[in-house]
């Protein structure tokens, strides 16, 4: 059976550039790779994948391509008297196989010329506890964070001053090695450099070859007004230093607002409970209540019942992301007198007797409730 023209297999012209040949092969390799074709299509896809592989192997090698252009298949096929080396995996094919399928096998590649693999530092988290006043008004706090920073002695390389890391000769600086298992190529971490891509023969005495040292650093954190529990403040580049001179991670300051003795908070609204005397609830009056801006007068109308809610507009929290200031809701609690003297008890009894003469006029809620209870019992059958 005659072989197809290699240019036809890849779908390129005979004057195609190396980049065009590589691009065409990548497209076919992705389309016909066995992992992407199963069932009835598997056999045909595998054959086309192998055919594309052979075509690329020949046309990506300048010497083999020249022989093929001059003599056709006879110039490159050993069985037909062609040049040596046909059928063996070339370095170029290995490279493109890694380019196309590196993500499938989970490998990360080093730089084009080898060398140590650069890795971004880890992100850090710091739990910051604030008072309600600090969270509402905003503040600036100093925090001390344990972290890894770049070693000054070696500049982050991990090698002793005057020396430098050497490219790992096992993986060529990629940090991973590829093992051929039949038709498939499996990629795994390099056993010699453990994925770093380089070997440090003369490590730095300060960081012991790590390129980083652990320190505590003090940072100034500007907390915007209106933050609440669960909010995060991101400090770019203040996390751990990267490996082999890589960029630092970020520091995330996690905000927690401590409980307050007077106020509770829900989003941008503040709540507080205000106890008032029996007399103030009955006769009305004024009393001072606290806000985060200072004291204000709250007017209590006569006949106020316990649980009544009063709204003080604009005395809440200004949203951290903008918008109108919230309100303060004051819930009054009528306090029952305790530790009464005999005289006070007698006065209350006289008051109760006087109020009963007015019937339901002085206590409409109680009267209404008693009427409902009476109807309830009348409708029940015991």
From TrEMBL:
<feature type="repeat" description="CXXCXGXG motif">
    <location>
        <begin position="168"/>
        <end position="175"/>
    </location>
</feature>
<keyword id="KW-0862">Zinc</keyword>
<feature type="binding site">
    <location>
        <position position="190"/>
    </location>
    <ligand>
        <name>Zn(2+) 2</name>
    </ligand>
</feature>
<dbReference type="GO" id="GO:0042026">
    <property type="term" value="P:protein refolding"/>
</dbReference>
<feature type="zinc finger region" description="CR-type">
    <location>
        <begin position="138"/>
        <end position="216"/>
    </location>
</feature>
<dbReference type="InterPro" id="IPR001305">
    <property type="entry name" value="HSP_DnaJ_Cys-rich_dom"/>
</dbReference>
<dbReference type="InterPro" id="IPR018253">
    <property type="entry name" value="DnaJ_domain_CS"/>
</dbReference>
<feature type="binding site">
    <location>
        <position position="154"/>
    </location>
    <ligand>
        <name>Zn(2+) 1</name>
    </ligand>
</feature>
<feature type="binding site">
    <location>
        <position position="151"/>
    </location>
    <ligand>
        <name>Zn(2+) 1</name>
    </ligand>
</feature>
<keyword id="KW-0235">DNA replication</keyword>
<dbReference type="InterPro" id="IPR036410">
    <property type="entry name" value="HSP_DnaJ_Cys-rich_dom_sf"/>
</dbReference>
<dbReference type="GO" id="GO:0006260">
    <property type="term" value="P:DNA replication"/>
</dbReference>
<comment type="subunit">
    <text>Homodimer.</text>
</comment>
<feature type="binding site">
    <location>
        <position position="193"/>
    </location>
    <ligand>
        <name>Zn(2+) 2</name>
    </ligand>
</feature>
<dbReference type="GO" id="GO:0005737">
    <property type="term" value="C:cytoplasm"/>
</dbReference>
<dbReference type="InterPro" id="IPR001623">
    <property type="entry name" value="DnaJ_domain"/>
</dbReference>
<keyword id="KW-0346">Stress response</keyword>
<dbReference type="InterPro" id="IPR008971">
    <property type="entry name" value="HSP40/DnaJ_pept-bd"/>
</dbReference>
<keyword id="KW-0143">Chaperone</keyword>
<dbReference type="Pfam" id="PF01556">
    <property type="entry name" value="DnaJ_C"/>
</dbReference>
<dbReference type="Pfam" id="PF00226">
    <property type="entry name" value="DnaJ"/>
</dbReference>
<dbReference type="GO" id="GO:0005524">
    <property type="term" value="F:ATP binding"/>
</dbReference>
<keyword id="KW-0963">Cytoplasm</keyword>
<dbReference type="GO" id="GO:0031072">
    <property type="term" value="F:heat shock protein binding"/>
</dbReference>
<dbReference type="GO" id="GO:0008270">
    <property type="term" value="F:zinc ion binding"/>
</dbReference>
<feature type="binding site">
    <location>
        <position position="171"/>
    </location>
    <ligand>
        <name>Zn(2+) 2</name>
    </ligand>
</feature>
<feature type="repeat" description="CXXCXGXG motif">
    <location>
        <begin position="151"/>
        <end position="158"/>
    </location>
</feature>
<dbReference type="GO" id="GO:0051082">
    <property type="term" value="F:unfolded protein binding"/>
</dbReference>
<feature type="binding site">
    <location>
        <position position="168"/>
    </location>
    <ligand>
        <name>Zn(2+) 2</name>
    </ligand>
</feature>
<dbReference type="InterPro" id="IPR012724">
    <property type="entry name" value="DnaJ"/>
</dbReference>
<protein>
    <recommendedName>
        <fullName>Chaperone protein DnaJ</fullName>
    </recommendedName>
</protein>
<dbReference type="Pfam" id="PF00684">
    <property type="entry name" value="DnaJ_CXXCXGXG"/>
</dbReference>
<keyword id="KW-0479">Metal-binding</keyword>
<feature type="binding site">
    <location>
        <position position="207"/>
    </location>
    <ligand>
        <name>Zn(2+) 1</name>
    </ligand>
</feature>
<comment type="function">
    <text>Participates actively in the response to hyperosmotic and heat shock by preventing the aggregation of stress-denatured proteins and by disaggregating proteins, also in an autonomous, DnaK-independent fashion. Unfolded proteins bind initially to DnaJ; upon interaction with the DnaJ-bound protein, DnaK hydrolyzes its bound ATP, resulting in the formation of a stable complex. GrpE releases ADP from DnaK; ATP binding to DnaK triggers the release of the substrate protein, thus completing the reaction cycle.</text>
</comment>
<feature type="repeat" description="CXXCXGXG motif">
    <location>
        <begin position="190"/>
        <end position="197"/>
    </location>
</feature>
<feature type="repeat" description="CXXCXGXG motif">
    <location>
        <begin position="204"/>
        <end position="211"/>
    </location>
</feature>
<feature type="binding site">
    <location>
        <position position="204"/>
    </location>
    <ligand>
        <name>Zn(2+) 1</name>
    </ligand>
</feature>
<feature type="domain" description="J">
    <location>
        <begin position="5"/>
        <end position="72"/>
    </location>
</feature>
<dbReference type="GO" id="GO:0009408">
    <property type="term" value="P:response to heat"/>
</dbReference>
<keyword id="KW-0677">Repeat</keyword>
<keyword id="KW-0863">Zinc-finger</keyword>
């Amino acid at each position: 059976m005659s072989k197809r023209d290699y240019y036809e297999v890849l779908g390129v012209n005979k004057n195609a550039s190396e980049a065009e040949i590589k691009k065409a092969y990548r497209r076919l390799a992705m389309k016909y790779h066995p992992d992407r074709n199963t069932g009835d299509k598997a056999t045909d896809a595998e054959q086309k994948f192998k055919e594309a592989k052979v075509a690329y192997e020949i046309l990506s090698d300048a010497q083999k391509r020249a022989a093929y252009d001059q003599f056709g298949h006879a110039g490159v096929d050993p069985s037909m008297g062609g040049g040596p080396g046909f059928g063996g995996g070339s370095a170029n094919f290995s490279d493109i196989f890694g380019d196309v399928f590196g993500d499938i096998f989970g490998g990360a590649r080093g730089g084009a010329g080898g060398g140590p693999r650069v890795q971004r530092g880890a992100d850090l988290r710091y739990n910051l506890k604030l008072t309600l006043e600090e969270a509402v008004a905003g503040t600036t706090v100093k925090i001390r964070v344990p972290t890894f920073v770049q070693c000054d002695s070696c500049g982050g390389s991990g090698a002793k001053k005057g020396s430098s890391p050497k490219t790992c000769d096992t993986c060529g600086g990629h940090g991973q090695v590829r093992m051929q298992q039949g038709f498939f190529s499996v990629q795994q971490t390099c056993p010699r450099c453990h994925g770093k891509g380089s070997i440090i023969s003369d490590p730095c005495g300060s960081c012991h070859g790590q390129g980083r040292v652990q320190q505590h650093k003090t940072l100034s954190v500007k907390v915007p007004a209106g933050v609440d529990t669960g909010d995060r403040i991101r400090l770019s580049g203040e996390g751990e230093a990267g490996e082999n001179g890589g960029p630092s991670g970020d520091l995330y300051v996690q905000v927690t607002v401590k409980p307050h003795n007077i106020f509770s908070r829900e989003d941008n609204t503040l709540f507080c409970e205000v106890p008032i005397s029996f007399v103030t609830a009955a006769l009305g009056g004024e009393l001072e209540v606290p806000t985060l801006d200072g004291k204000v007068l709250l007017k209590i109308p006569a006949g106020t019942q316990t649980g009544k809610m009063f709204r003080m507009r604009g005395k809440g929290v200004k949203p951290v992301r903008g918008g109108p200031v919230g309100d303060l809701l004051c819930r009054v609690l009528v306090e029952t007198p305790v530790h009464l003297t005999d005289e006070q008890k007698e006065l209350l009894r006289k008051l109760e007797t006087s109020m009963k003469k007015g019937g339901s006029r002085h206590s409409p809620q109680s009267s209404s409730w008693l009427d409902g209870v009476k109807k309830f019992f009348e409708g029940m059958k015991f």
